[in-house]
Amino acid sequence: MKKFFSLAIAVLVILSLFIMPVSANDEIFSKETIEYYKNLGLQGTVLNVYNWGEYIDDEEVDVITEFERLTGCDVNYTTFESNENMYSKLSGGGVSYDIIIPSDYMVERLISEDMLLPVDYNNVPNFAKYFDSEKYGYLIENGISDYAVIYNVGTTILIYNKNFVKEEPNSWKVLWDEQYKGKVLMFNNPRDSFAIAQFVLGQSINTTEKSQWDAAAELLMEQRKKVKPEYVMDEVFIKMESGEYAFATYYAGDYELMVENNPDLGFVFPKEGVNTFYDAMCIPSAAQNKKGAEAFINFMLEPEIALANAEYIYYATPNRAVFENPDYSLANSAAVYPENLENTQAFHNLPTDTLQYMNSLWMKVKGENDAQGLYIGFFSVIAVVVVIIIANILKKKRMAKFYDV
Q: Where in the sequence of the chain do the CATH 3.40.190.10 domains occur?
C-alpha cells in the first residue's frame, strides 16, 4: 500500500510539472480568449515574424510562447536593426515573412511599392476595442490603417552622461563639440542621422532639395572629422550603460531602460526639434500565413499582452486598455509621454531619386574616416615593404663586402 501511495504521489508530482505552468499562464487570459485562439484552426501552421531587436516581452510574459500555446502555431522569430536593413532583406527576395514591424516612412514606402497586404479587421477585433483613435488616429490617415496596425509611438531624444556633461544641453549642436571627441554615439541609419543635421540646419526632414541634403551631409562629415562619433543601433544600450560615452542619439523610451542600469544618464528634447514616429504591424505581400498574421496582430492588442510589451519596451502605447491600467508604470514618464513638445516632425516616404541620393551621401558620410583608415593602412604597408627592401639591400651590401674581404 505504501508503495502504491508513493507511486501515486510521484505521478502527481510529474504531472504537476506539466500542468502547473499551463494553469498559471491561463490566469492571464479569460476562458473566452483561450477558446477564441484555440478555435482559429492554426494548429500545425508556421508564422514568420520579423521585428526590431528587444521589441517584444520575453520576461514577464513570454509573448511568443504564449501565442504558440494558445494557437498551436509555431513561430519563427528573427530581428533587424534598422528599417533599411529590413527593407533590403524583404525586397531582396529569398525570404518570406508573415509579420514585419516597420516605422512610419517605411510603411508608406512598402505600400507605394505594393509590398504589403491589406489587413482584414474582421480578424483583428481587438483593434476596434482598444486602439485609441482619439489620441492617435491622426497617425493612420491617408489609408495607412488599411495596411498597418500601430504597435508603438515615440520620439527621438538626446541622452547624455552627467559625469561628462556638467550642464544640461538644449541643442543637437553639442554633438559637434570637440571636447567630446570619441564620446558620441550616433544613429547607424541615414534617416535618423540626417534628421539631426537637418534639425540643426532648420530644414524639413522630408526635403527633396539636393542642395539641402548636401548641406546636411557636409555637417555630418564635419562631425566625423571633429568628434569621430561611433554609429550604433542596439549596441547603444551597453555603451551608454557602461558610462564611457557622453552622448547618444536614440529613441525616448530606450532612455528609461538605460537609466535603470545607469542613473547618471539624463535626457533632453533639443530645441531645434525631434522626430516623432510610430512602428506598426504589417503583413508583407509574400506572406504565407495571413490568417496567422492577423491572429498575431490581434494577440498583440490583447490588454494583458499589450501591457507586458509596453512595460518591456518602454515606448508609448496607443492601446487604451494599457494607458488606463493603474498598474502601468510608465504613464507619468516625461520621456515616454512628453507634454507640450514643440518643433516635432514626422518622417514620410521620400521619392526614389531622393532616397537614392540620400543613400549615396550616407555612404560618403560613413566612408570618409574609413577611407582615411585605408589610406593610413596602405601607406603603413608600403612603409613596411620599403623598410624590408632597404634591409635586404643593406644585407646584400654587407655580404658583398664580406666576400670581397
A: 27-152+280-346, 154-276+352-367
Single-letter code of the amino acid located at 175: L
Helix axes 190-201, 83-91, angle to 10 degrees: 140
CA distances from 302 to 34, 115, 127, 307 (A): 11, 27, 9, 8
Cα–Cα distance, 19 to 81 (Å, whole number) = 38
> Does position 10 have pLDDT exceeding 60, yes or no?
no
Cell 504531472 sits on residue: 15
Q: What single-letter DSSP state applies at residue 58? A: -
Q: Three cell numbers at 396? A: 646584400
Q: How confident is the model at residue 135 (pLDDT cuts 50, 70, 90)?
A: confident
The C-alpha atoms of residue 385 and residue 215 are separated, in whole angstroms, by: 41
**Structure letter (DSSP) for residue 103:** B
State residue 139's pLDDT score. 78
Top-level class of domain 27-152+280-346: alpha beta
pLDDT > 70? residue 6: no
Say how many Å lie between the first and final Cα of the chain, rounded: 108
| pLDDT tens column, 302-336 | 999 999 999 999 999 999 999 999 999 999 999 99
pTM of the model: 0.80
Q: What backbone torsions phi and psi does residue 101 show, to the nearest 5 degrees?
A: -130, 75
DSSP-based three-state secondary structure for 223:
helix
- Nearest Cα neighbor of 144 from 350, 348, 318 is 348
CATH topology of domain 154-276+352-367: D-Maltodextrin-Binding Protein; domain 2 (3.40.190)
Query: pLDDT exceeding 90 applies to what percent of the chain?
Result: 77
**Contact partners, residue 74, CB within 8 Å, separation at least 6:** 44, 45, 46, 47, 68
